[in-house]
Amino acid sequence: MDEILGDAAFRSRDLIGRHYEVPYAGATSFLRTRYSRDLKDIDVAVLGVPLDLATSNRPGTRFGPRGVRQASAQIAWGPQHPWTFDPRDRLAIVDYGDVLFDYGYIDRMLAETERMAREIIDSGTSLLAIGGDHFISLPLLRAHAKRHGKLSLVHFDAHSDTWADDLYNHGTMFYHAMNEGLIDPARSIQIGLRTYNPQTHGFTILDNAAVIGNGAAWVAEQVRRVVGDGKAYLTFDIDCLDPSFAPGTGTPVCGGLSTFQAFDILVRLDWVNFIGMDIVEVAPIYDVGEITSLAGAAIAMHYLSLRAKNLPHRSNVKIRREA
Questions:
Q1: 8 A C-beta contact, residue 58 and residue 250
Q2: pTM (2 decimals)?
Q3: Where are the domains of the chain?
Q4: CA angle 218, 221, 225 (to 5 degrees)
Q5: In Å, how far are 55, 122, 133, 163, 308 from 171, measured between CA atoms?
Q6: How many other CB atoms are there within 10 angstroms of residue 56's CB atom?
Q7: What is the secondary structure of 111-129 as a DSSP string?
Q8: What CATH code would you report for 8-308?
Q9: Three-class HEC string of 169-221
Q10: Do 321 and 272 form a contact (C-beta atoms < 8 A)?
Q11: Are 103 and 59 in contact, with CB atoms under 8 Å apart?
Q12: How far apart are the first and last CA of the chain?
């Protein structure tokens, strides 16, 4: 860890490593990483998509990216248990800022989100997106599929989001993604579901009772069986967690996973060939003590640790020019 440097989100010139900052002050980029649109030598770019135009219940997820960034300052000091390393010591990560669009036009959100995602992906940089309601996964999957082809989906949620409907909202986007050929249901798995949808569309579904009853190791083995070694996209709806652990969301459903159970599954997926991820449906206005935003930040941190697990520790690399 380098010397104390306030507002490292703007002042740091390091691509690798971290600076100590007190959690209650300073600019709140994700994990205090540098805000930059320069993707030279960058491994992962964090992109916020502040959307709640496609929600079916309570709005407020447009504040999700800001809430998760703010909460991430609480865990930006170093490794997250049970990992023994900080992913920023192995991955060059920047905060790319937010997708900007006129809030009155969801079609513009679709186009601009896909454009910015492709801008990141086509540079060879991996994308970690922070929502926003779950509808943001559709343009993100469009961007990823154009580069990687049809993907497996590893989907944590209380809801299937595969309702067969012409509507485009946060309950239908994976139905549309399937029909557009972006994801392969036969190689995709949904974890923690606890709302009824009679149509599975060929997805493997592990409902909350199966997940909680059989445990994390069993869930990880089912993911291995279904996904195999193909390219996969990870999407985590925070309402997969029980409302006692994540009250700050638009469509809470009782009977979900604890944060520990979710973490315990995630850390066992280090072999999955994840090419991108989103964490969605954090709505800070309904939160209590930032616990939902903190859970979202921690889930994203686990994902970065998965990506970094088999990489070597790197000495510091300086930013060569201002973005």
A1: yes
A2: 0.94
A3: 8-308
A4: 140
A5: 8, 28, 10, 6, 32
A6: 14
A7: HHHHHHHHHHHTTT-EEEE
A8: 3.40.800.10
A9: CCCCHHHHHHHCCCECHHHCEEEEECCCCCCCCCCEEEEHHHHHHHCHHHHHH
A10: no
A11: no
A12: 23
Tokens of residue 89, six digits: 């010591």
The torsion angles phi and psi of 278, rounded to 5 degrees, stand at -135, 150
Tokens for 313, please give them: 């520790």
Q: What is each CA distance from 262 to 56, 84, 255, 303, in whole angstroms? A: 25, 19, 13, 12
Q: Which run of H or of E encompasses 235?
A: strand 231-237
Helix H segments across 24-99? 64-72
Mean pLDDT by 10 residues, the chain (323 residues): 72 85 90 95 97 90 97 94 95 96 87 97 98 96 98 97 88 95 98 94 97 98 96 98 98 97 97 97 97 98 96 72 43
Residues 34/40, Cβ–Cβ less than 8 Å: no
Phi/psi of residue 204, nearest 5 degrees: -80, 125
Could you say which DSSP state residue 277 is in?
A: E
